[in-house]
């Protein structure tokens, strides 16, 4: 199991520049294609960038398209834009274990279709902790979940919002990667850097959100740029855990 810290306020892995797909060679297109489910439906999301994940966003020209299929149900991924990113999305009702998703990127100029296949892992529920539960930063946080399976892996992310001595707030996260899916993870809160900053106001509590993500890696078409990704995941969230700093 590996772990790393993220400064939420300062990190952005996206370019704000956009390039039309007609102007990009197929093998220069980096992709991150993933499917997520929160237990009600599933979302297929495709991010395309120039060369790597930090390159320009790629916007599909009218001659290109992204499609996703679950069985006989095929949908065109629709463009979604926010301040920093461009991606393409489709929503399906299916979200059960072993549901297979086929995502095709049709490139008309090169007369080629790039295909990724992803398979959804089993659903689960977070059993512990409970929403709004309170812990001291000197305690252990025990995370438990149902329906564990040693065939899959999990990522666990804690995201914190803490008050600063100057009246401001600070957001941080620590991610535990490739956790063994055996139903339990114990975290010593006093080892987390997010609660050690000397600028924190220890008279104020921190609010922590928990994300548990069970995942399976999917196939990546060899015509995408090196380092492209493909992953299907079941995600469960728990908000408003309170951490006291003294």
Number of helices: 0
The major sheet is characterized as: 10 strands, mixed
State the shape.
globular
Low-confidence stretches: none
Beginning-to-end CA distance, first to last residue: 29 Å
Strand content: over 45%
- The gyration radius over C-alpha positions equals 20 Å
Oligomer: single chain
User: What's the rounded overall pLDDT mean?
Assistant: 93
Structure class: mainly beta
Describe this structure in words.
With 246 residues, the chain is mainly β. It has no helices and 19 strands. The strands form 4 sheets. Strands 1, 3, 4, 8, 9, 13, 15, 16, 18 and 19 form a 10-stranded mixed beta sheet that branches. The chain is globular, with a radius of gyration of 20 Å.
Any chance you could write out the topology, listing elements then pairs?
Layout: E1 2-7, E2 18-20, E3 29-37, E4 42-50, E5 57-59, E6 65-70, E7 73-76, E8 78-81, E9 86-92, E10 100-107, E11 112-119, E12 126-128, E13 134-136, E14 140-145, E15 153-163, E16 169-180, E17 184-188, E18 206-217, E19 229-244
Parallel strand pairs: 2-5, 3-19, 13-19
Antiparallel strand pairs: 1-16, 3-4, 4-9, 6-7, 6-10, 8-9, 10-11, 12-14, 14-17, 15-16, 15-18, 18-19
């Amino acid at each position: 199991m590996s772990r790393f810290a993220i400064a939420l306020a300062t990190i952005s892995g996206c370019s704000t520049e956009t390039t039309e797909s007609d102007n990009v060679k197929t093998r220069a297109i980096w992709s991150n294609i993933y499917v997520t489910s929160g237990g009600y439906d599933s979302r297929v999301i495709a991010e395309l960038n120039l060369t790597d994940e930090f390159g320009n966003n790629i916007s599909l020209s009218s001659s290109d398209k992204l499609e996703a299929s679950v069985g006989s149900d095929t949908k065109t991924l629709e463009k979604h834009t926010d301040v920093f990113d461009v991606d393409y999305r489709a929503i399906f009702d299916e979200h059960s274990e072993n549901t297979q998703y086929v995502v095709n990127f049709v490139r008309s100029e090169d007369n080629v279709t790039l295909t990724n296949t992803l398979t959804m892992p089993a659903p689960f529920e977070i059993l512990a902790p409970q929403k709004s539960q309170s812990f001291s930063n000197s305690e252990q946080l025990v995370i438990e979940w149902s329906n564990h399976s040693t065939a899959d892996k999990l990522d666990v992310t804690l995201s914190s919002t803490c008050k600063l001595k100057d009246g401001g707030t600070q957001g941080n996260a620590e991610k535990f990667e490739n956790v063994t899916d055996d139903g339990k993870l114990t975290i010593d809160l006093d080892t987390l850097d997010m609660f050690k900053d000397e600028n924190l106001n220890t008279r104020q509590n921190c609010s922590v959100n928990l994300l548990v993500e069970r995942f399976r890696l999917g196939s990546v078409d060899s015509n995408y740029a090196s380092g492209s990704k493909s992953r299907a995941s079941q995600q469960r969230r728990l908000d408003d855990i309170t951490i006291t700093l003294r």
